[in-house]
Design brief:
homohexamer, alpha+beta, globular, Ribosomal Protein S5, domain 2, five-stranded mixed β-sheet
């Protein structure tokens, strides 16, 4: 039995609330159960130096966690003077995941920055962030088209993510914090709307794990991401 | 006429929503119009080194702004590797303001940290943060008493804050961003529930300003802070 | 009785020695009793990026304290790798105070940097710094006119500052360190030569304080700043 | 045809030279073709603060690249004042991979630090580092047993790693730099000697990729890691 | 002819003014012509961690330059967030020079920190700093003896320093900035009162230079340091 | 008797292995006994900002030490976020030494960066680095001539370095770590192929030392550097 009493293949309640920031070109407050991430998409009419003059755009992401997003207060990264390795790893993952579904030529020489700030954390913050970031990104692209700045939609497909793990010997979908802290294996899957692989990260936490276990996790992820993509379509009117 | 069409002595709509974080000992989402600040109060059972063994507590504050809290995206302080002078100035102000109404002996050897994160900014973020921080602080003190960790309330009085300024030659209460950007004088008042002065900061933005103007700002602040204190009492069941 | 045996409305002996640096376009060693601050004004023929091409100038300030300026040695900020929040707060205040009396158009596209380094500290370093910085600034403007680089004086008025506080229940002018450490309320006033308000910062240190006390502090400040302005005129031959 | 003219399932020539540092308790210079990583294992008789007094040990890793390890000179991280996100991601991966095969109780309250410095880079530096780090780690454990500091071997199994990718539409084993720069999908597999999964990281570089492609990569990795484990056994006399 | 019209073996006017800081246990304002360095000696009743419990003391130094000490304003190291390589090199040299003449056992478990801040620079700041630092150090040792904290003088000998260089083909003593900028060879000598070598640093600036030139510089340094030692004795009443 | 049983005027076995990096324009692995430094010379077709447009080149150096180059593991500078004062001092010395024998006009507007990374340290790392850096620099210059990018050799002379010290009262050549840790005086000499002085650094470690001792050290250095220059010529085919 999972601590949350969910069946192994059941997601936590997921909500994708849009329009939560009055300035951002796209925004989404995503909840996976008690995990809440606020995502804003900001359009800037310039690209990083390494891309200037190439007629293409860029999409990047930053991730942060409010100090009391967690059970006990963590130190504020701005006060410490640097982002942790974990933070950098996560924001690199979010950026790569978004770029996998964007046509950079179609975007033109502009950058979309996705800021993912964790308001409350109960496991799965990076997968919630990816799922919500796509919504904010899509809304920003819609905004650019409505403003006449783009004629073609640069967003080629959806992208969403979920974690899966082996908990008490059983493969389960969408780990919460209590499960995550005790899982024997932990994995994050990022798939497109068509089901292609964008990113897989799988780690044996206390021991190695078997290929059969891995395949069970992958199946759960496919199911969960299918449901997340449906919610994304509803949120973006797609 | 103010851009917001408010009369000179009228606050923006203010809300103080409590219980917005499931882990923090106290929390408050404070809105002054479109300005929204999420405040959490975290109790830690230790004090900073300079106070150890003195039988007294400490209250401190940190302040941050999400990158897209503002009209155009600002740089993330954690990514830049340092907090700006403005950020440090504000968090020092919030901490001083809270400490002015806390009996540190009554609090015992523990620290309460107030994290004030601006979700959306439309002027007056520091005064909203102070007003909301007092609510979170009070709720954390209530929690300590309910848990039997404290028998006496260490919170001696309320404290709330508001900005005032001279806009188009007229003293007005509670500046929003458009007013703040164009004010001839800008001031922040922090007063206790009894009306004592905790902090006054007044600045001539484009020119010096007169003592008569200053006194008009002070009167407006007294009116506004009286109203904010009433809302604080409602929010904390006081 | 004040520890210094001064009457409540009496400044410490104040000196403003000019021409103390052979390279700077303006310089002043300011003493308020045992507090000594060396100020240099450096003219640079360029402005910060945000002002380029606008046909106007800029005035900025930096503040530092030598490690043994104080009773016990403090850590060197350069060795620690960052400026404290207090340092940044003070240098921002000095810069704002100077800019309030400068006609930036008249200054032209050049910057004047005021470096305020505390050689010895006995309370009131920020107000001494402001008072001396104006002298160095004025001398640098005189230099620019003598060199024919400016035809109009960009310095519109004087600006000077003093601290006041409530010590043992009595409002007093120009706190030294011993008074400052024990004051119930502490305030800094920055006024122009004409008496307009440039900046007021007032803080209740151990308790809130009353409006009547505030007004007494303001009156003392007016008297003190009047005397400081007279000394500034003598120092600059005005 | 691969640029290196290797068949799709063929590793580059791999060497594991031990005893290359006269001070370290274990050391290995690992080469995967032109990629060369120097690994040292350093035993310290203390553990990080979070583990003190728990009767268990710790294994950690750091990774660096000499500025001219690559085709064009990169900036020295020590001179830049921080490690890149990529560096931190890699050193966290190496540390996790080693810890998956160590019995921390058997190791006792001591730490083994694995320093992986890339002397020359031609793709696959992280997988070479993991493969060589296990050799250095094993030698350090042997040293502790020879010195009588340990009676039981804390190393529970081997661990090795290889990259695979889809290059010109074909799944291939052990990408060199030229292949890596042009791969459609890139993956790193870390497996134990018994074949269990320690870590999988798979990324679609320009597009998502299919489950069938992923499975082909996994098969290639199993073959390659089997060969690497045989070389590890030879290098450590196992 | 030297720009300063001095003969090759003549020092600039040197003054060593003591008692210039009311808090420091020893202090000296040293001038070598227009070069002015303020040195304070601070006694702290503790030693760095690597010396704790060994019954011996430590002497260390820090060096800084005010931004407008030079012809054109330099950036403030505290604002830049780090000390330059040059600064670190100089403060390490000053510390080593002082330690060469101190009996650390006789000093007891306390540290003397020498802060050397350049008020105005016209060449030779490091040699002026060393010469003045010895005076401040000696005065601090005298203070410790007067207070009864030490019974034996821990200062074993004097130490002073001077620069020499080859300017327009001629070896000259005590380079000022104009000479230093154009010297073919530049050297700093640190000698004890007895004439022993504490440190020699000699550098060919545009070309290598000969042993004969080096010997001429060394002779000049001996003469100059003899004169500096006499001034040190006068300043410290020795 | 020296710990190494060498006669006072005998170098450790020295090797200069070239072509050790497949990407660098010049490279050398230099060994002085157990001290091993890997040097690469990287040519970049641009110069630092302060030299742009002057028609001349630049040569610079960076120095680092792998964490386990030493008997006990040191902290990684990249992880600590800054280079130590010792590191900066050494890399500035290496750069100055190289620049003393390069005709910057002949080099043209390009920069050669010498990265000196200590693989294993047993005393004398900076002198080994200088000796090896010249070899890498010469090879890079040869490369530029072979590629037709230069017609004239910009390398005017050789430069090499060795340490000498007073150990147990005897002047000895080329200190190893055990000698260096116990030397009464320590010195580094950098001389050109013609025997001119590029740099001398001599330090009394526990006491001052005499001019006679200094002259003995200088004689030993001349002998040792003569032998090193012969090895450099062999390594570069000169």
């Amino acid at each position: 039995m999972r601590p949350s009493e969910r069946a192994p293949d059941i997601l936590r309640p997921v909500t994708l609330e849009t329009g939560v920031n009055r300035y951002a070109e796209g925004s989404c407050l995503v909840s996976f159960g008690h995990t809440k991430v606020l995502v804003t998409a900001s359009v800037e009419e310039s690209v990083p130096p390494f891309l200037r003059g190439r007629g293409q755009g860029w999409v990047t992401a930053e991730y942060g966690m409010l100090p009391r997003a967690t059970h006990t207060r963590g130190r504020r990264e701005a006060a410490q003077g640097k982002q942790s390795g974990r933070t950098q790893e996560i924001q690199r993952l979010i950026g790569r995941s978004m770029r996998a579904v964007v046509d950079m030529k179609a975007l033109g020489e502009r950058q979309i920055s996705l800021d993912c700030d964790v308001i409350q954390a109960d496991g799965g913050t990076r997968t919630a962030a990816i799922t919500g970031a796509w919504v904010a990104l899509k809304l920003a692209a819609n905004y650019l088209r409505e403003e006449g700045l783009l004629t073609v939609d640069p967003i080629l497909d959806q992208v969403a993510a979920v974690s899966c793990g082996v908990f008490s010997g059983t493969p389960v979908l969408d780990l919460d914090y209590e499960e995550d802290s005790n899982a024997e294996a932990d994995s994050n899957f990022v798939l497109t709307g068509k089901g292609d692989i964008v990113e897989i990260q799988a780690t044996g936490e206390k021991r190695g794990f078997s290929q059969a276990e891995f395949e069970a996790l992958f199946s759960l992820a496919r199911k969960g991401i299918g449901e997340l993509c449906e919610l994304q379509r509803q949120a973006t009117g797609g």
